[in-house]
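hey
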C-alpha cells in the first residue's frame, strides 16, 4: 500500500490543487490531502472549513482522503506510514522555496521523499491568494476553483449577494 501525503494550506483549494490530487491518485494507492494549521498565516477559512471544502472537491476520488496536521510535516508523514510528500510545482518562481523545503524535510527525516508534480498548464498561474483577491473584488473565479469553493467564497466574502460570479 503506497500512501502519499499532499500537504498545504488549501485556503482554499483551487483547480490547480485538484489537478495535482487527481494525478497523484492515479499513481499512489492512497493519497491523504493534509491541511496544515499554519500559525504564521492568517487564513480566510477555518481549519474545519478548509478540510470540508477539500473533502467536497475530492469526493469523486475513492482513494483520496482528507486530514489535518500540526507540527512537523515529516512527523505527520511518518505517522501515516508514508514516505512520500507530494508538492505541486507551477513555475520556476515556486522552485526556490520548494527546493529548500524538500531538502530540509530530507534532513529532518531521510526516509521521506518529496515528489513534485506539475499541474495542467492552464492552471500554472493559479494560486489561492490570487483567487481570494479576485473574489474579494467581485471578479469571476468560476474557472479557477471547484464549485464548492466558489459557493464558499461567495458566502464568506459577499453574503449579501453582490458578486459577479456564481
Ligand atoms: O500551501 P502551503 O502554504 O505552501 O503549504 C506549506 C506547508 C504547510 C506544506 C509547510 O508550511 C509545512 O510543511 N508546514 C508544516 C511545518 C513544517 O514541517 N515545517 C518545516 C518544513 S521545511
Amino acid at each position: 500500500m503506497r500512501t502519499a501525503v499532499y500537504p498545504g494550506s488549501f485556503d482554499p483549494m483551487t483547480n490547480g490543487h485538484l489537478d495535482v490530487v487527481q494525478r497523484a491518485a492515479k499513481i499512489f494507492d492512497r493519497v491523504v490531502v493534509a491541511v496544515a494549521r499554519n500559525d504564521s498565516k492568517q487564513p480566510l477559512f477555518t481549519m474545519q472549513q478548509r478540510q470540508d471544502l477539500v473533502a467536497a472537491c475530492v469526493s469523486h476520488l475513492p482513494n483520496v482522503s482528507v486530514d489535518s496536521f500540526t507540527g512537523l510535516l515529516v512527523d505527520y508523514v511518518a505517522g501515516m506510514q508514508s514516505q512520500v510528500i507530494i508538492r505541486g510545482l507551477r513555475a520556476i518562481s515556486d522552485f526556490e522555496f520548494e527546493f529548500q523545503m524538500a531538502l530540509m524535510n530530507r534532513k529532518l527525516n531521510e526516509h521521506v521523499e518529496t515528489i513534485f508534480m506539475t499541474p495542467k498548464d492552464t492552471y500554472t498561474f493559479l494560486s489561492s491568494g490570487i483567487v481570494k483577491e479576485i473574489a474579494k473584488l467581485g471578479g469571476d473565479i468560476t474557472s479557477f476553483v471547484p464549485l464548492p469553493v466558489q459557493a464558499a467564497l461567495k458566502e464568506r466574502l459577499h453574503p449579501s449577494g453582490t458578486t459577479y460570479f456564481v
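The pocket of 4'-phosphopantetheine is lined by residues 7-9, 36, 38, 72-73, 101, 104-105 (CB under 6 Å). The beta strands are 3-8, 30-36, 64-69, 84-88, 113-117.
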